[in-house]
Amino acid sequence: GAVVSQHPSWVICKSGTSVKIECRSLDFQATTMFWYRQFPKQSLMLMATSNEGSKATYEQGVEKDKFLINHASLTLSTLTVTSAHPEDSSFYICSARDSEGLSSPLHFGNGTRLTVT
Amino acid sequence: QKEVEQNSGPLSVPEGAIASLNCTYSDRVSQSFFWYRQYSGKSPELIMSIYSNGDKEDGRFTAQLNKASQYVSLLIRDSQPSDSATYLCAVKGGTASKLTFGTGTRLQVTL
Q1: Residue B52 to residue B66: CA distance in whole angstroms
Q2: Per residue in B67-87, pLDDT tens?
Q3: I need a labelling partner for B30 at 20 to 30 A (CA). Which of B2, B23, B40, B110 fits?
Q4: Is the four-CA dihedral B93, B101, B38, A116 of positive or negative sign?
Q5: Closest by Cβ to B32, choosing from A32, A42, A102
Q6: How far is residue B50's CA from residue B70's CA, in Å, rounded to a whole number?
Q7: Record: contact B43-A34, CB cut-off 8 A
Q8: Do B34 and A106 count as a contact with CB atoms less than 8 A apart?
Q9: Chain centroid to CA B7: how far?
Q10: Which residues of chain B have a Cβ shorter than 8 Å from any chain A Cβ?
């Protein structure tokens, strides 16, 4: 149980274009999903918390107009990197909990490796 | 001071030995603690979770928590080459729902 599916697993795009990444909870409903970014040899950095039916909460320093998050249903959240630039190249990982208890762990998708040329 | 601190390593242990991974955190009201394993190029996978002071064992893994010292550790017994990965410590605060991750400790199990 508690499977999070992320698509695509990798994408290469040209500078200036936009890329959409999908995150789905396959066997549970997730009112909240989390989007992380990881640069090589660094830890996961939380970008934003995606809330179903409402606006996402962005961490300090993350541009909400550049990283558009939509959480339209209890099983799907999307992250769109708009006007991507080479410095946006990174490993993007979504996660979700299958329950809201304090002790519930995060389950991660397989990640999306974005390369902007 | 970082919220969650780990030694980046690499920590090198011979096959069959015990690997000891350590993590300290700054938020005293933290309530939930998790250890994730991350292979290169992959997303993290949950290894252990612990919420109460003391030890929690699951197979070859033992998590230890000391809230007074704000310290959590992970012991891996009978280390195998397949255990070679980066181990991330994650902490969940009192009221916040988000997890804060440490930078991870890279473990190398040598033959």
Answers
A1: 8
A2: 999 999 999 999 999 999 999
A3: B40
A4: positive
A5: A102
A6: 13
A7: no
A8: yes
A9: 11
A10: 31-32, 34, 41-46, 49, 51, 88, 90, 92, 97-104
